[in-house]
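testing teh design pipeline on a random one, pls ignore if ur not involved
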C-alpha cells in the first residue's frame, strides 16, 4: 500500500472518529517511516527521545504553573489595582486598565487562557458594576487575554523555537514591540468606545497605595524579562525563577495562597500539559521525516513558480494562517505549519524570527474565531455569557487586531529592532 493511500485512509478515519491530535501525529510519523522512510520504526522512538531531551521543554510547565499560582493568589489583584490607578483619568479608564492588566500579567504567565481567567474573573464584574455594556466588557477581555501569547514570555514562542530551530530569547525579544502595539490598539478601542463615560480623577494617594501594596507584583515581570534579556538566565531558568518568585511573594508576603490553592494550580497545570507534550514529541519526529525526505525544499521549489515575491507570499501565508486559526488550536497549527512554512519564508528573504511573530499574531487572532477559538469558550464559561454573544462581542476588537497584524507583517523592524544581530 502506497504512503499516499495509507495516509489518506488514516486521515479520513481520524476525522470521522475524532482521534486526538497526538494519536494522529504519532500514527502519521509511524506510517511515514515504515512506508517511505529509510529507517525502521525505532527511528520514531529515537526522535521522541531526542525531542524530550530538550531543556527548553521544561519552561512550558513551569511558566504555566507560575501563571496558575499567581491566578490563585494575590499578584493578579494587585496588578489590576495599579493599572486602575494609572488609567483612572482616561476615557473608559477601567477598560484601559483591563487591557493594561492583561499586558502586565501576560509578561508573567505565557498563556492566553490563564491571562484571561486571571484578569477577566476580577475585571469583568468591576466593568459591569461601573456601567460598561456586557458585550463591550466581554469582547475587550476576550481579546486582551490573547496578549498572553504575544507578550513574552510566551509558550507558543517556545514551541515555535523548537520547531523552527531559532533562539527562544530572540523570539521573546521580538515579541515585545508587536505585543505593546496590539495592547495599545486595544486601549485605543476601549477609549473610543467609552468616550462618553464619566472620567475619573488622578488620585495620587490611591496610586501610591496601590504601588506600595503591589510593588512586589510589578517586580515579577521585571525579574523574569530582565533576566532573560540581560542574558543572566535562559528561558528555562526564567520559568523556574517565575515559580520560585511567585511562591516567595504569595507565601512570604501576601499570604493569601492556601495549600488547597497550590494544589489546584498544580492540577490545572498538569491538565493543560496532558496532551501538549505527546503532540510536541510526535510532531518533532514527523518534522525530522519531512526534512529527511526534503519535502519542505520541494514545496519551496513548487511555490516559487506560483508566488513571485515576498509580498505575495506574506499575503498568502496570512490568509492560510487566519483560516487555520479558525479550525486548529495554536499549538497544533505551529507544529503542523512551522516546519513547512519557515523554509519557504527564508527562501523569500523573510527573517525566521520575524516570521515566527507573524505566525503567532495570526494564530493569536485564531483565539477569537469560531469554531475552535479557545478564548471564546473560556470567556463564555468565565463570564456566564452565551457563546453566540461572546462571538459577536469579539468581532470589533478582532478587526482591530487584524489591523495590528498588517503592521507586524509588513514592518519587520517592529519585531526585529530590539533583537541583537538582526
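output:
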Amino acid at each position: 500500500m502506497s504512503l499516499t493511500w495509507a495516509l489518506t485512509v488514516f486521515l479520513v478515519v481520524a476525522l470521522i472518529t475524532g482521534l486526538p491530535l497526538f494519536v494522529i501525529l504519532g500514527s502519521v510519523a509511524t506510517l511515514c517511516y515504515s512506508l517511505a522512510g529509510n529507517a525502521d520504526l525505532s527511528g520514531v522512538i529515537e526522535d521522541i527521545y531526542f525531542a524530550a531531551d530538550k531543556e527548553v521543554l521544561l519552561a512550558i510547565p513551569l511558566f504555566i504553573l507560575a501563571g496558575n499560582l499567581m491566578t490563585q493568589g494575590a499578584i493578579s489583584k494587585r496588578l489590576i489595582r495599579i493599572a486602575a490607578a494609572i488609567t483612572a483619568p482616561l476615557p473608559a479608564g477601567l477598560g484601559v486598565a483591563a487591557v493594561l492588566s492583561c499586558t502586565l500579567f501576560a509578561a508573567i504567565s505565557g498563556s492566553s487562557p490563564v491571562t484571561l481567567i486571571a484578569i477577566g474573573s476580577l475585571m469583568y464584574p468591576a466593568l459591569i458594576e461601573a456601567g460598561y455594556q456586557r458585550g463591550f466588557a466581554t469582547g475587550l477581555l476576550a481579546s486582551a487575554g490573547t496578549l498572553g501569547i504575544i507578550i513574552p514570555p510566551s509558550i507558543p514562542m517556545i514551541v515555535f523555537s523548537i520547531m523552527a530551530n531559532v533562539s527562544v530569547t530572540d523570539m521573546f525579544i521580538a515579541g515585545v514591540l508587536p505585543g505593546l502595539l496590539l495592547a495599545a490598539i486595544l486601549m485605543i478601542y476601549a477609549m473610543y468606545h467609552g468616550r462618553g463615560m464619566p472620567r475619573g480623577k488622578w488620585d495620587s494617594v490611591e496610586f501610591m497605595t496601590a504601588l506600595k501594596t503591589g510593588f512586589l507584583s510589578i517586580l515579577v515581570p521585571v525579574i523574569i524579562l530582565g533576566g532573560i534579556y540581560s542574558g543572566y538566565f535562559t528561558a528555562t531558568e526564567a520559568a523556574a525563577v517565575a515559580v520560585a518568585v511567585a511562591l516567595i511573594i504569595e507565601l512570604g508576603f501576601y499570604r493569601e495562597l492556601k495549600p488547597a490553592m497550590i494544589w489546584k494550580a498544580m492540577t490545572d497545570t498538569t491538565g493543560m500539559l496532558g496532551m501538549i507534550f505527546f503532540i510536541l514529541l510526535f510532531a518533532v519526529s514527523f518534522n525530522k521525516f519531512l526534512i529527511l525526505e526534503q519535502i519542505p525544499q520541494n514545496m519551496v521549489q513548487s511555490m516559487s513558480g506560483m508566488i513571485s515575491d515576498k509580498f505575495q507570499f506574506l499575503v498568502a501565508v496570512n490568509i492560510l494562517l487566519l483560516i487555520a486559526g479558525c479550525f486548529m488550536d495554536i499549538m497544533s497549527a505551529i507544529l503542523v505549519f512551522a516546519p513547512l512554512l519557515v523554509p519557504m519564508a527564508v527562501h523569500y528573504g523573510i527573517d525566521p524570527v520575524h516570521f515566527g511573530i507573524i505566525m503567532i499574531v495570526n494564530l493569536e487572532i485564531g483565539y477569537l474565531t469560531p469554531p475552535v477559538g479557545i478564548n471564546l469558550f473560556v470567556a463564555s464559561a468565565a463570564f456566564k455569557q452565551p457563546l453566540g454573544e461572546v462571538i459577536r462581542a469579539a468581532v470589533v476588537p478582532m478587526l482591530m487586531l487584524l489591523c495590528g497584524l498588517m503592521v507586524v507583517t509588513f514592518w519587520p523592524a517592529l519585531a526585529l529592532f530590539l533583537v541583537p544581530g538582526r
